[in-house]
Structure formats: C-alpha cells, structure tokens
Fold:
Amino acid sequence: MEHPKLTRPLRSLSFMSIVFLLSGICVAQSAPEPKSGLAVSVQTGRAVIKPEDPVVLRVTFRNVSTDTFRLPDRVNPPDFNRWYLSLRDVNSGKRYTGISTLPMGAASEPVEINPVIMAAGDATAVSVAFQGFAFVPGDMTFQAARNAWFPQRLDSSAQFKLPAGHYEVAVNVQFRSFLNTTNLPERIKAAKEAIENNPIPLWKGDEVRSNAVPVEVRTDAVVNQSEIVQIGKDTAGSLLEFLQEVRSDSAFVSARVHTGLWNDLDAVGAACNGVLSMKDSNQSSSIFSTVNQAINQVQQRSLEISQRSNESEEVRTKARQLASTITKFTLNIER
Structure:
C-alpha cells in the first residue's frame, strides 16, 4: 500500500502573512528569527483551551539559507519532551516556561537519531500537542525550568498549571544528539562518526526559537470541533509520512520480513486515510479511536519483536524505537 508524502516544500508561505488556520483566522504576532539558516514558525492549533488542556501548535521548519543542510534529528514525530515553551501573559507581562514532565530517558542509541536533509527553501510541518507539561514561573532555559520543577514534581498538579489569561506562546526546539564523551561504546562511536562524516553538513546549533502566537486559557473554554478535526487530519498526514519512512527499511519490515508488523502498519495507514476523508466532526471520536487501536497494535507487535532472542541487536533496537515513537501520534486531544 502506497502512502503519499504529505509534508512538502512550502516556498510560497510568507512568515509575515496572515495565517488562515482551521475554522478561524490566526495572525502571527512575530516573525521567527532564523538561526544558522533554520527558521521555525508556529501557528495556533487551538486558540482557546482550559488550564488542563495541552497547548497545541502547528510547527513548521524551513531552510531559509541558500545551502542544503541536515537537521540533527527528524522532527516527525515531534520530540516534544525535549522541546519547551516560552509564554508571556500579554496583560500582566508575567512569563512562564513550559517543560515536559516525562522522564528524559536513556542516552540515544544507534538508529534512534536520524538527521533529515533540507534543501534551500524546503519546509516540513508537524502538529504538536504539548501533553503533560508543567509551567514554571519565569523565562528560563529548559534545564533551569526542569531544575525548578523537579524537586516539587510530586505536588505539582495545581502549582504548575497555566493560569487563565491571554498568552503569547513560542516553542524552543532542541535536537537530540549522542553524548560527547571520549569513552563512548563502539556502537555509539560508529553511529556518531557516520553522522558527522556525511558530506552534507549538519545544521549548526543546539536550539532554535520560533515566533510567538496567541493562545487564550479559560476555565470555561469549549472544544472547537473544527479545530479538533483539523488537528486530527494534520496528525494523520504526519503519521502517513512516518509510515512511509518505516516501510522503506525493507531489511526491518516488509511483506516477507516481520509480515505481521507490515500488516499492522497497513492497518494504521488505512485508519489515517479514514481521518483524512472524514467529513462529519461527529465521527471524530470513533475514527480517532480506530487510529489509536491500530497504533497500539503496532506498539505491542514491535515490543514483542524487540524481546526476541533470535533477532539481531539492530532489529531489536529498531523495534523498540518504533514502539516508543509511534505512540507520539496517538490522537488523545479530544475532550
């Protein structure tokens, strides 16, 4: 089954243009500031949310240089436990830093870091629901905010919620990398050298910030169904692109190699196409549930493969990574 690549160059989009988004109109309040040729812009996915709801943004990465480079790691699916939010209450001026409360996990293994080639003018976009975030008062770096939140994490349910208000929100993107030490295991050293020795240069920088867009937080916020549907379609498109990448690795999964997993990926693709063809927002709950069930089946199959003693270490690592990665596409944004 062929899945179309839905993320493509967006060369005609101006950062200062009025963004027609979902069922309403969202005006970007600032332009992204490119860093070493990379610009990250965001659009509001949900304009009004409750304090317990995730901030949802559509994040676009663009190569605004005249040269081709590689992003240090793929951005689809988003690595949102390493990305963090900078917020400013437009009325009071008070600032917050939003950081993920998820564990950071172990150091990266080979096959877990995948640089992405971006030619001059290329862009790729992904929708991100920043689930499970704590909002620490102050304008901080990622690590400083984690350090402020961590000692109080067991009693943070109310303390680190985002208060009601009107905010400007920007996202700070950090890329994963291998540890920079002299005593790396040989498997890590080889993967690190392969990335560094590629003739296409890596983007230089460890972090880049987007423009800021408005998000309102209200205790009486009502779900906008057209926004939910659009977010679902954006996510389904990104998931189809991810499936295309996974299925291109025929040594890992194909109609002959790990056939059960291949068929499970087919089911995910069919479910995604169901989201893209959805006309009635009343169908979203059942259609999103079908996607999530298919994702769960891939996760369970991948975990089973990762535990087989007769598989190579590379295959077990790929299966473990697939099990972890595909769950980031779960459609759990509807309330």
Notes: The CA atoms of residues 165 and 307 lie 48 Å apart. The chain has six helices and 14 strands.
